[in-house]
Amino acid sequence: MKTIKQTYINELNIKKSEFICRLIPSTNEKQAKEIIKQISEEFKDATHNCTAYIVEDGEGYDDNGEPSGTAGRPMLNILKKNNLQNITAIVTRYFGGIKLGAGGLVRAYSKSVQNTLETAEIVEMEKYQTVQLIFSYTIIKNVDNEIRNHNLRIIKKEYVEDVKYIIALLDVKLLESIKSKLQNQIRIISLGEKFLEKQ
């Protein structure tokens, strides 16, 4: 899966109208809608805040008062053409007094998103299973060896009463191997799936 590394903003001026595109990483519809709401409120003085998003649990777009099919859908098409996911695009337009016509609007909103993508760092993501390992200080060396041997990713380490690691793995079967090697001296809690940058 490809997505953007961080938020990107780019401005485009066409016939005195200002188009400000924001591309924001987002993982689900709830998050995408919250981002859209926040930006739309922040720039409520704009003529339009048109949007498109593709996330894990769906996709959507909104022309926000522009003629139907001239803004949100073309923006979504650009995201799809670039094979992007987990991304929300918002183009804020300040009308400059010159009408662009339907074709001109489609081109303007498409170009606004495409130009911004050209400034963005695109990253390849993979879906990992994340788990928490809880174990005593006495077996840290053994656990570290197992993690190294299986080439697993450590996301977080915590040294409290027990040692707690959050690790990411592509194959859950590896956990059984770790568990049997450490003869149940380790507690494993599943934390679900998470997209992480490909290594």
Task: Note down, in words, how this protein is organized.
The chain has 5 helices and 10 strands; from the N terminus they run E-E-E-H-E-E-H-E-H-E-H-E-E-H-E. The protein is α+β, with helices and mostly antiparallel strands and about 200 residues long. The strands form 2 sheets. Strands 1, 7, 8, 9 and 10 form a 5-stranded antiparallel sheet that branches. It is elongated. The two termini are about 15 Å apart. The mean pLDDT is about 90.
Summarize the main sheet. Answer: 5 strands, antiparallel
| Overall number of domains | 2
Distance between the termini: 13 Å
The name of the CATH superfamily of the largest domain reads Impact, N-terminal domain
Extended strand count: 10
What is the CATH C-level name of the largest domain?
Answer: Alpha Beta
Poorly predicted residue ranges: none
Which range best describes the helical content: under 10%, 10-25%, 25-40%, 40-55%, 55-70% or over 70%? Answer: 25-40%
Mean pLDDT metric: 90
- Number of alpha- plus pi-helical segments: 5
Q: What is the CATH third-level topology name of the largest domain?
A: Ribosomal Protein S5, domain 2
Roughly what fraction of the amino acids lie in strands? 35-45%
Global shape? elongated
* Radius of gyration from CA coordinates: 23 Å
Q: Which helices and strands, and how do they pair?
A:
Elements: E1 2-4, E2 8-14, E3 17-25, H1 29-42, E4 48-55, E5 58-62, H2 72-81, E6 87-94, H3 101-119, E7 122-135, H4 140-149, E8 153-159, E9 163-169, H5 173-181, E10 186-197
Antiparallel strand pairs: 1-7, 2-3, 3-6, 4-5, 4-6, 7-9, 7-10, 8-9
Helix pairs in contact: 2-3
